[in-house]
């Protein structure tokens, strides 16, 4: 067991525990802050996997923008932020089912795709921008484009939702 | 990228980290004094001139004074977050300097150790700077929220909305540099500018967009809406006092120097001597480059102060509109142009005269477009302003002539008073 493995396990543990605290925390702001810790730990995992670009993009986009916007929404709207604010919806059982199903599906895909694969620790291939660009825009260009259409749909949907009151 | 990065002795790394820290703190103290003196000169005042030569020790005295003030925890503050927020704002500001190159490889005095004048470097160094500075936004959001005051909250929200928006324009303006240099590592970008020319010249639009975005990103005048005194008291740090306030202040000044240093590295050739001095032997070797680097950085700091001294503050909606509707589309269009140009230059399909001709045609076309008269909607005849609307004397709206200059009310007084 090398030092990298130990740190990797520790980071994974941090990510898991903080993710658990996200869903169990009593106050919604605390949940958002624990989400920051989770995303940060995942970025640390990326660094350990020599995926530098992905790691810093994770910090820049998810920690630096997405969660900040989430905090905005919580602070600017009249959402209750006191104790008990994180458990006001009654969708928890449904959310559990959806999360469980997603975990199983993603896990199955990973297992089917990479089960039994051995990574040679001596031959480190750093995830540079060039390598990532090759992977996204050559090998995986179709899934990438499909994903961008999904994002576009989400964007249009958000605009439609916010403009609903005007008609 | 030098082979030495990541393979240095531990004492060299600690020494360099300590030096970066000291340089930043001293630079901050200097900048506060510099700003006060320059603004004073611009306003026909003297500025601080008592403590130390030219008043240089004034910021130190102010720092000590600030440290001795009372620590206040507001009643409605969220204690833990309120305490941590200034720390979250300050640490990333220091971290960003890990990858800023101060100079070439030098020998440390009294030893034989050779080391680059840069703490470390990585293939995605510039992305790293953008990422850690975006962490600094948390300090502001959380500080504003945890204070438990409306002014702080609004200031924090404004400030972080502004930083997130202008970060996009900033990142996009840097993309052109990545394409030109073929790397995101700061030391390699400096090296690429040594072979080519300073990127400020071929990438002038990027440089201009970056300079506007960096002022917006650091919440400085004329974009200092987060601390618009007339509206928000002091912005997100309204409720902060003593050392916690000092930390926010430190973070703000370090961020100012960080974006200046990044501008120097990306567009003005980094630590390399300017043209003319560069021709002298040894100007780009040894410890001299630190001087050029600090000089160029100071130039940008002066630009910040100059802007503050001469421009009034923008309105919030104008500012946001400018960022999202002008800067971001402009930089996207410019990136497309740069990509095409770069490809053509690499493939040798392009000679400079052609570029000049195309650029000339574009400029002329733009000018012609400026002179095409817009189709105006027929102006609606404004109703005559009533100087006594609702029974009270009201001043005319902008652009309207005041009625009845003689001072006599137009309407008969009997109708008004009854």
UniProtKB/TrEMBL annotation, chain A:
<feature type="transmembrane region" description="Helical">
    <location>
        <begin position="55"/>
        <end position="74"/>
    </location>
</feature>
<dbReference type="GO" id="GO:0008137">
    <property type="term" value="F:NADH dehydrogenase (ubiquinone) activity"/>
</dbReference>
<keyword id="KW-0874">Quinone</keyword>
<protein>
    <recommendedName>
        <fullName>NADH-quinone oxidoreductase subunit J</fullName>
        <ecNumber>7.1.1.-</ecNumber>
    </recommendedName>
</protein>
<dbReference type="InterPro" id="IPR001457">
    <property type="entry name" value="NADH_UbQ/plastoQ_OxRdtase_su6"/>
</dbReference>
<comment type="function">
    <text>NDH-1 shuttles electrons from NADH, via FMN and iron-sulfur (Fe-S) centers, to quinones in the respiratory chain. Couples the redox reaction to proton translocation (for every two electrons transferred, four hydrogen ions are translocated across the cytoplasmic membrane), and thus conserves the redox energy in a proton gradient.</text>
</comment>
<dbReference type="GO" id="GO:0005886">
    <property type="term" value="C:plasma membrane"/>
</dbReference>
<keyword id="KW-1003">Cell membrane</keyword>
<keyword id="KW-0472">Membrane</keyword>
<dbReference type="InterPro" id="IPR042106">
    <property type="entry name" value="Nuo/plastoQ_OxRdtase_6_NuoJ"/>
</dbReference>
<feature type="transmembrane region" description="Helical">
    <location>
        <begin position="94"/>
        <end position="114"/>
    </location>
</feature>
<keyword id="KW-1133">Transmembrane helix</keyword>
<keyword id="KW-0520">NAD</keyword>
<feature type="transmembrane region" description="Helical">
    <location>
        <begin position="6"/>
        <end position="24"/>
    </location>
</feature>
<feature type="transmembrane region" description="Helical">
    <location>
        <begin position="140"/>
        <end position="161"/>
    </location>
</feature>
<feature type="transmembrane region" description="Helical">
    <location>
        <begin position="31"/>
        <end position="49"/>
    </location>
</feature>
<keyword id="KW-0812">Transmembrane</keyword>
<dbReference type="GO" id="GO:0048038">
    <property type="term" value="F:quinone binding"/>
</dbReference>
<dbReference type="Pfam" id="PF00499">
    <property type="entry name" value="Oxidored_q3"/>
</dbReference>
<comment type="similarity">
    <text>Belongs to the complex I subunit 6 family.</text>
</comment>
UniProtKB/TrEMBL annotation, chain B:
<feature type="compositionally biased region" description="Low complexity">
    <location>
        <begin position="402"/>
        <end position="418"/>
    </location>
</feature>
<dbReference type="GO" id="GO:0016655">
    <property type="term" value="F:oxidoreductase activity, acting on NAD(P)H, quinone or similar compound as acceptor"/>
</dbReference>
<dbReference type="InterPro" id="IPR018086">
    <property type="entry name" value="NADH_UbQ_OxRdtase_su1_CS"/>
</dbReference>
<feature type="transmembrane region" description="Helical">
    <location>
        <begin position="352"/>
        <end position="372"/>
    </location>
</feature>
<dbReference type="GO" id="GO:0048038">
    <property type="term" value="F:quinone binding"/>
</dbReference>
<feature type="transmembrane region" description="Helical">
    <location>
        <begin position="197"/>
        <end position="216"/>
    </location>
</feature>
<dbReference type="GO" id="GO:0009060">
    <property type="term" value="P:aerobic respiration"/>
</dbReference>
<keyword id="KW-0560">Oxidoreductase</keyword>
<feature type="transmembrane region" description="Helical">
    <location>
        <begin position="122"/>
        <end position="145"/>
    </location>
</feature>
<keyword id="KW-0830">Ubiquinone</keyword>
<keyword id="KW-1003">Cell membrane</keyword>
<keyword id="KW-1133">Transmembrane helix</keyword>
<feature type="region of interest" description="Disordered">
    <location>
        <begin position="390"/>
        <end position="418"/>
    </location>
</feature>
<feature type="transmembrane region" description="Helical">
    <location>
        <begin position="245"/>
        <end position="267"/>
    </location>
</feature>
<feature type="transmembrane region" description="Helical">
    <location>
        <begin position="166"/>
        <end position="185"/>
    </location>
</feature>
<dbReference type="GO" id="GO:0003954">
    <property type="term" value="F:NADH dehydrogenase activity"/>
</dbReference>
<comment type="subunit">
    <text>NDH-1 is composed of 14 different subunits. Subunits NuoA, H, J, K, L, M, N constitute the membrane sector of the complex.</text>
</comment>
<dbReference type="GO" id="GO:0005886">
    <property type="term" value="C:plasma membrane"/>
</dbReference>
<keyword id="KW-0874">Quinone</keyword>
<comment type="function">
    <text>NDH-1 shuttles electrons from NADH, via FMN and iron-sulfur (Fe-S) centers, to quinones in the respiratory chain. The immediate electron acceptor for the enzyme in this species is believed to be ubiquinone. Couples the redox reaction to proton translocation (for every two electrons transferred, four hydrogen ions are translocated across the cytoplasmic membrane), and thus conserves the redox energy in a proton gradient. This subunit may bind ubiquinone.</text>
</comment>
<keyword id="KW-0472">Membrane</keyword>
<dbReference type="Pfam" id="PF00146">
    <property type="entry name" value="NADHdh"/>
</dbReference>
